Amino acid sequence: MNVGSYFWGQFGANKTQAANMADMAVNDAKRVGLKEGSVIALDYEDGATRDKAANTEAIMVFMKAIEKSNYKVMLYSGAYYMKTNIDYEKIGKEFGAV
Fold first, then answer.
1. Which one, 10, 34, 51, 90, has the greatest CB density within 10 A?
2. Is the whole model's pTM more than 0.85, yes or no?
3. 5-95 maps to which CATH number?
């Protein structure tokens, strides 16, 4: 059975916090024995700013850090929240589908 991880992202548009939270997610994954190549899902549903581009950049910082640590990454959010606060097309072009 494939197992993944879920991380509640609370960094809004703050790229430094996004990077720190990505480190936390990876450290937690390693601590519990999640194999490299497994999925770490970012749940981004709270804390977004009115700056869609800044929110998107912070999300991408998180996602790139997860990929750099040899895990797959995916973004999870509600449809309305994603359409309102995130440039999901930019993220899709960069990360594709899991």
1. 34
2. yes
3. 3.20.20.80
Average pLDDT for the chain:
96
What's the CA gap between 41 and 5, in Å, rounded?
6
- pLDDT tens for 64-80 read 999 999 999 999 999 99
Among 31, 35, 24, smallest CA distance to 1 is for 35
What sign has the CA pseudo-torsion 2, 68, 52, 16?
positive
Cα torsion angle, 14, 19, 23, 26, sign: positive
**41 conformational bin, left if phi > 0, alpha if psi -120 to 50, beta if neither:** beta
| CB 26 within 8 Å of CB 71 | yes
HSE, CB side, 13 Å, CA atoms: give it for residue 4: 15
| DSSP letter string, 37-70 | T-EEEEE--S---S-HHHHHHHHHHHHHHHHHTT
CA 71 to chain centre: 11
